[in-house]
Amino acid sequence: MAPTKGYAPVDAMELPRFSGLRTFMRLPHVTRLDDVDFAIVGVPFDTGATFRVGARFGPEAIRSSSVTLRPYNAALEIAIFEVSSGVDFGDLPVVPGYLPESHSRITEAAKPIVASPATPIFLGGDHSVSLPLLRAAHATRGPLALIHFDAHSDLWKGYYGGKDTHGTPFRRAVEEGLLDLEHSIQIGLRGPVYDAGDASISAELGFEVLTGPELHRQGVPSTIEQIRARVGDRPAYLTFDIDFVDPAYAPGTGTPEVAGFTGTESIELVRGLVGLDIRAYDVVEVMPAYDPAAITSLLAANLVYEFISLDAIARRKR
Q: Mean pLDDT, to the nearest integer, of 89-115?
């Protein structure tokens, strides 16, 4: 293994991949971030789910599927750990069954992580966790542009009289002024909705929207150009709901929608964002109970690997 900048994975030539603790890429478990460039952080909470549940086990499954990842990203030509020092921070505190209390704890625990020199990469958890994470980011960084890959807008007003579920986080984020809406974009929205008004919510609130059918028609390169043009040089938060991917490639999720995208397209879209100023990432809604061959968690682990690579390229450039 090549020389490393600081914290790096265990060398697979010294300790087989199937052995050792299940941290992401077998990185060291470290919670001091003053000399760290990126931190993998679990958010094992799924009380915001309204259909299938089980995303609380997503961080564990993604970590387990990450053991085959290697330190050199050939597609992006980056030796990650020659440039970046990375750790697995562990999990943020939650209270199972109690959403407001959990969101509060997630925000407070995430604030020092977001304020540190390390780029946080969060492993959900259902999509409700993006709201407390955005609150933590806003406390340090102000409004961020949102790059949102998802089959659903997650902009519902509420659910059975309640305000917070995995279908409402970005409605709350808009109401609380957490987002730079002029530079935010939602990509991949598709599937049936309740009425015509639901289909127009995103645009009415100020998001640029690229629906799933539009993405299929125009292709990945044009989509990358559209995302880059929308975000520009603004600091951004990238959230990736695994149901952006077609259930043929990612069955282990809470609200699957057909006519989605392949793993290849998903990876290419993320790689195309190289050079954008992304300050934090999350991948959410991975449910291992519905993922018998672990293909969903494997794809999620590889998406996180691409997030790490983007961050390393940005650090190398600086």
A: 97
**Angle formed at CA 251 by CA 248 and CA 252, multiple of 5 degrees:** 160
Global pTM reads 0.96
The tokens for 131 are: 């709201």
37-72 per-position pLDDT tens digit? 999 999 999 999 999 999 999 999 999 999 999 999
Tokens of 207: 């998001």
Distance CA 101, CA 201 (A): 28
Q: What is the C-alpha end-to-end distance of the chain, expressed in Å?
A: 24
Determine whether 5 is exposed, middle or buried from the number of CB atoms within 10 Å of its CB (0-12, 13-18, 19+).
middle
Q: Closest Cα partner for 28 from 110, 88, 115, 93?
A: 88
Tokens standing for 157?
């007003």
Q: How far apart are CA 213 and CA 260, in angstroms?
A: 9
Within the chain, where are the H helices? 58-65, 80-83, 99-115, 130-141, 169-175, 196-199, 201-205, 212-218, 220-231, 263-271, 295-317
pLDDT score recorded for residue 10: 85
**Distance between CA atoms of residues 12 and 19, nearest Å:** 10
- DSSP-derived pairing of the beta strands 119-124 and 38-43: parallel
For the chain, state the CA radius of gyration: 18
pLDDT per residue as tens digits for the range 242-279: 999 999 999 999 999 999 999 999 999 999 999 999 99
CA distances to 47, 48, 122, 127, 257 from 168, rounded to whole Å, are: 13, 9, 19, 9, 18
Q: Is the pLDDT of residue 13 over 90?
A: no
Residue closest to 206 by CA, chosen among 186, 222, 188: 186
Residue 3 pLDDT > 80: no
Percent of residues in the chain assigned helix, strand, coil, to nearest 5:
40, 20, 40
